[in-house]
Write a structure and sequence with these properties.
alpha+beta; four-stranded mixed sheet; 3 helices; about 15% helix; 11 strands; binds S-adenosylmethionine; single chain; three-stranded antiparallel sheet; about 20% strand
Length: about 240
C-alpha cells in the first residue's frame, strides 16, 4: 500500500472509470496525483496497515497466490442518508437547505473559509445578521448555535441582557423548531427562560460545555420553574 501523506486533509476530486482491473465498484480514480510524493507502507508477514479513508492510496496488483484483504470501517450517525449515487429508479432526496449567520462579517469570512476547505461552500448560505432580528426560514427545522458565553467575548452584564432577548426571539420566531445551544455557562437555562428538554455534556477544547436542547412550541414554556440544581454540572440530567 502506498499513500500520499496529508492528502486526507482536503477534498480531492475523483472520476468514475470502471474497468475490470479496478476492484472499486465505480472505479473511483483520483486524477492528477503527484506520485513522486507517494510513501510506501511496507509490511512484514502478519502485519497490517491502517489508513484514513480519505487519504489518496493505492496498491499494485497482488501477484501472490493468497488473497489480499481490505476492511473498511465507517462510523456514521443513524441520521445519515445516501443522497448521491442512488440505486436506479430511486428518487434523490431534496437538497437540504442550510443557513448560517453571525453579527460580524469577519466571523462569516472565517466560516466561509472553513466551508471552502471542507468542500461545502455551495451547501450553506451565509449572511450577516443579528440573531435577535432574523426570521425562521421554514416552519420547522434545527437551529444550532454557539452564542457568546463570557469566556472570550461578551461581558457578563451584556450576556445577562442578551439571553432573555434571545429566548424571546426563539419563542416568537422559531416555534416548531428544535434549537441546540452550546454553552459553558450552566446558568444559561435560567437566563434564556425556556425549558431545556435535553442537556448533552460536551467539551469545546478543554472547556466543559452543555449542548442544551430546546423544543420550541408555540405559546408555551415562558418562565419555567427552575429545576433543582440547574446551575451546576453535577445536576445535569442525561
Ligand atoms: C462563542 S462565538 C462562536 C463563534 C463560532 N460559532 C464558533 O463556534 O467558533 C459567538 C459568536 O456569536 C456572534 N454573536 C454575538 N452576538 C450576536 C448576535 N446578536 N447575533 C448574531 N451573532 C452574534 C459573535 O460574533 C461570535 O461570532
Amino acid at each position: 500500500m502506498r499513500v500520499i501523506p496529508g492528502s486526507h486533509l482536503r477534498q480531492m476530486a475523483f472520476v468514475n472509470t470502471p474497468n475490470e482491473h479496478n476492484l472499486l465498484p465505480r472505479g473511483q480514480t483520483i486524477i492528477d496525483v503527484d506520485e513522486s510524493k507517494a510513501v510506501h507502507m511496507n509490511l512484514q508477514p502478519g502485519e497490517f496497515s491502517i489508513h484514513h479513508e480519505a487519504i489518496v492510496h493505492n496498491s499494485d496488483p497482488n501477484n501472490s497466490d493468497d488473497r489480499r484483504i481490505g476492511m473498511s470501517i465507517h462510523y456514521i450517525p443513524t441520521s445519515t442518508r445516501q443522497v448521491k449515487y442512488l440505486e436506479k429508479g430511486r428518487k434523490p432526496l431534496a437538497t437540504l437547505p442550510i443557513y448560517g449567520s453571525d453579527l460580524y462579517g469577519d466571523t462569516l469570512k472565517l466560516a466561509q473559509a472553513n466551508l471552502r476547505a471542507a468542500g461545502l461552500e455551495e451547501a450553506v448560505q451565509l449572511k450577516q445578521a443579528n440573531v435577535l432580528e432574523i426570521s425562521a426560514p421554514a416552519a420547522t427545522g434545527i437551529l444550532v448555535t454557539n452564542p457568546p458565553y463570557g469566556e472570550r467575548m461578551g461581558a457578563q452584564q451584556d450576556l445577562a441582557e442578551f439571553y432573555p432577548k434571545f429566548g424571546d426571539a426563539l419563542k416568537q420566531k422559531f416555534a416548531g423548531w428544535n434549537c441546540y445551544i452550546l454553552s459553558a455557562d450552566m446558568n444559561l437555562p435560567k437566563l434564556i427562560k425556556l425549558q431545556v428538554s435535553k442537556r448533552t455534556p460536551l467539551f469545546n477544547g478543554a472547556l466543559e460545555c452543555r449542548l442544551f436542547e430546546y423544543r420550541i412550541v408555540a405559546g408555551s414554556m415562558r418562565g419555567p420553574k427552575p429545576v433543582q440544581g440547574d446551575a451546576g454540572a453535577q445536576s445535569v440530567k442525561r
